[in-house]
Design brief:
The chain has 744 residues and is α/β, with parallel strands linked by helices.
């Protein structure tokens, strides 16, 4: 894991040498000391080292010890000694066990067979000992364990021990400053880590300082932003190596000299401008180490206010959340964000509209197409939509150059990497897309619902600009709704009005457009473009082949209940009650089904694997957490690394039946001929209800959901023991071809 073992242990500083070195004014106000390695418990005199710290540092109140627990008996003995000393001095002791995976994963990362078992024994000791201490787990993320970090989180939650994640980086003190391979993550690996960090701060981490660190680390590894997290070593931290070498921080600082051979205070401050300031300006902005400290001023003041109000029994974040939850205030804040967003984009639009110059009209050129929509937040369904649109357009045009407008280009770049269909597609930010409109021949809103969210502002500006520039526009197999507040509905109407042609994915969307005042006399209803892509892939992709003889696979296409979008008519208490009933009904029915059908394996399918749409992997892990009887029947293979759309299709093909909730999970099962049951979170008013009713899929909305309905309908399918074949023949490509004929 590190190369500190190559260090000459015989040259390590003795406790008495440490005592002499600490007798310098530089160390006079130290309140906390971290002892780590390598492995600090390898020192037989670790207790003497700690005793010296307390004797020489009068303000010392806290000791933190990091151990790799490689030899549990030795580690437990050392912790016991240190714990006795910290208790004697009325100080706090925190012990962090380095754990980088579950079972063989950790042993592989650490290069030591049996290290995980040893670590478990140390964790069990820490949780059962009467020694006053706080225990935690620390995970270092490198290439070897990057796709196993969620599994480790579930392990720690089950063990009821806090875990903190850090990114592995080259490190001076660990003698890994010249190592590259373990830390050189691919784009896919960085994306996986970034989305996991988002999940940590949304669903797990409670400490605001640590949540802020995760947010800024995400910005660093995904957006290449400079470091914003605070660091004590920038202004109030110092490092002493096992040899007694003084340095500023352990990651980047050179050796300033031995603490017994120099005046530490003098050397520290004399080199502050020459060395420390250089580190601050040249190294800190790109440093991803998990050091923390004072955050930026705005965050610091916010945290200070929270801390101050809590002294008076006031939970400020809870009050702010409650105030923002008041419908009138929530709408006002949303309107403000929408106006701010559209105002910013209008500045880009203004520049675009002022651009002059004729567009080439040669018939020999390829058609230039810009596809927009909710890309950059795409689910598996959105990827299938995009594949369907590209397939339909390619079958109608001899040659085309395609750009994709993305709300978050880093997400769409991963999608491009996963789908061969996107090899020649250029990913643009929304701003870049607006500027490119004069050079386009066709703008497509590419499937999905045109709905009441603030990002509708982006699509409005794109379609307004296209109309002003005389560029044709097409609504391609989209839904309309859910509708919302007036400004959102006006924006949706604006998009529809500015479209040259409109193809809806269902009759209900066409009716929603009519209610908005759109002339629908020439509009068309086809179906969701994902059907087109899935129809193409159905026979191209085989079963995953993970199913054993005699097994049956129940695929789950569930999601967290999106009450903020689809249950605005419910009170907070009603939303909570609906959520609880939904989850309990699912769990109880699945327990009953697995009891009755011992051959049944449950396969949770994540349709969304980014935080923008609510990462389904986090929902599934929470849903089944602590449900031991069900966990043995669940195949978690899809809850780690994100796969390509074709790989997910192969897992769909292996399923015998499905319980769906996400709209496109139902689209997938219908296209692939998998008998299914649907849970309608749109309360009979939206896309899930319409699709299920159209194709006679048993469904029930969440307001009336019972476990008996789920059990009975799935049990019927299992008893029938048959797999349906799809009779759906997509019409979307034909409608696109007709559009091309009419327009070209």
């Amino acid at each position: 894991m590190c190369n500190i073992w190559k260090n000459d242990m015989e040259s390590s500083m003795t406790p008495e040498a440490l005592r002499q070195g600490l007798r310098n004014d530089l160390f006079g106000k130290i309140r906390s000391v971290g002892i780590n390695g390598g492995e600090p418990t390898l020192r037989d005199d670790i207790d003497k080292v700690v005793e010296v710290l307390f004797e020489e540092l009068p303000n010392l109140k806290s000791i933190s010890l990091i151990t790799n627990a490689i030899s549990h008996n030795q580690v437990i003995e050392a912790i016991s000694k240190v714990g006795y000393i910290t208790a004697k001095h009325n100080a706090n002791l925190t012990v962090m066990v380095s754990l980088d995976g579950v079972g063989k994963v950790h042993d592989r990362v650490r290069g030591t067979k049996g290290n995980f078992v040893s670590s478990e024994r140390v964790i069990d000791f820490l949780q059962s000992t009467e020694i006053p201490l706080t225990s935690a787990v620390g995970c270092t993320i490198i290439k070897e364990n990057v796709f196993n970090i969620a599994e480790l989180l579930e392990y720690c939650i089950e063990k009821n021990i806090y875990i903190k994640y850090r990114l592995g980086i080259p490190h001076q003190r660990l003698y890994t400053e010249n190592q590259v391979k373990p830390y050189n993550l691919t784009n896919e690996e960085r994306y996986h880590v970034g989305e996991f960090l988002q999940g940590l701060q949304m669903y797990y981490e409670k400490n605001e300082g640590q949540r802020f660190f995760y947010r800024t680390l995400f910005d660093q590894i995904i957006l290449n932003s400079p470091r914003q997290a605070g660091c004590d070593w920038q202004h109030r931290g110092v490092t002493i190596s096992s040899k007694g070498e003084l340095s500023y921080c352990a990651v980047e600082s050179p050796n300033l000299g031995n603490i017994n051979e120099i005046d530490c205070g003098k050397v520290y401050f004399e080199n502050e401008k020459k060395i420390l300031q250089n580190i601050l300006s040249a190294r800190c902005p790109t440093c991803k180490h998990d050091y923390v400290g004072l955050p930026p001023k705005s965050i610091y003041l916010k945290n200070l206010a929270i801390k101050a109000t809590r002294k008076f029994g006031v939970d400020l974040p809870k009050i702010v959340k409650a105030v923002r939850g008041v419908p009138s205030i929530s709408r006002a804040l949303s309107k403000r964000r929408f106006d701010k967003r559209i105002s910013r984009l209008r500045l880009i639009q203004k520049d675009c509209l002022s651009t002059k110059g004729p567009k080439p009209t040669s018939k020999e050129k390829p058609e230039r197409i810009l596809i927009c929509g909710w890309y950059g937040t795409e689910t598996l369904g959105d990827k299938a939509i995009l594949g369907g649109i590209l397939e339909a357009m390619a079958s109608s045009l001899s040659e085309m150059e395609t750009c994709l407008a993305s709300l978050n280009p880093y997400v769409s770049e991963i999608t491009k990497q996963q789908m061969p269909e996107l090899n020649r597609v250029k990913i643009l930010s929304v701003e870049e897309a607006i500027r490119s409109i004069p050079e386009q021949d066709l703008i497509i809103f590419g499937g999905g619902p045109i709905m009441a969210i603030n990002e509708t502002a982006d699509m409005q500006i794109i379609f307004e600009t296209a109309k002003c520039k005389g560029v044709r526009t097409l609504i391609a197999g989209s839904g309309v709704g859910p509708l919302g507040d007036n400004w959102h509905n006006d924006s949706i109407k604006n998009i529809l009005e500015n479209a040259t042609s409109r193809i809806y994915r269902d009759q209900k969307s066409l009716e929603s457009a009519r209610k908005l005042g759109i002339d629908i006399s020439s509009d068309i209803v086809a179906e969701d473009p994902a059907f087109t892509w899935l129809h193409l892939k159905k026979d191209q992709v085989s079963d995953e082949g993970s199913k054993r003889a005699g097994q049956k696979i129940l695929l789950l296409g569930l999601r967290d209940f999106p009450s903020h979008q689809y249950a605005k008519h419910l009170s907070s208490a009603q939303k909570k009650e609906t959520q609880l009933n939904f989850e309990q009904s699912v769990l109880n029915s699945l327990s009953a089904l697995t009891d009755k059908h011992p051959e049944l394996i449950i396969l949770p399918m994540p349709m969304c694997t980014n935080h923008f749409g609510g990462d389904d992997r986090w929902f599934y892990r929470k849903l089944f957490r602590h449900k031991k009887s069900l966990l043995s029947r669940i195949d978690p293979v899809l809850l780690g690394r994100e796969l390509s759309p074709e790989e997910y299709v192969s897992y769909y093909n292996s399923a015998d039946l499905a319980l769906t909730m996400r709209f496109h999970s139902l689209v997938f099962t219908l296209s692939l001929g998998i008998p299914s049951v649907a849970l309608d979170y749109t309360f009979g008013k939206g896309k899930v209800h319409s699709l299920a009713a159209k194709y006679n899929v048993p469904y029930m909305d969440l307001s009336t959901l019972t476990e008996g309905f789920i059990f009975d309908e799935l049990d019927k399918i299992l008893i029938q023991d048959r797999k349906e074949t799809s009779s759906i023949k997509p019409d979307f490509s034909r409608q696109i071809q007709q559009f091309i004929v009419n327009e070209y």
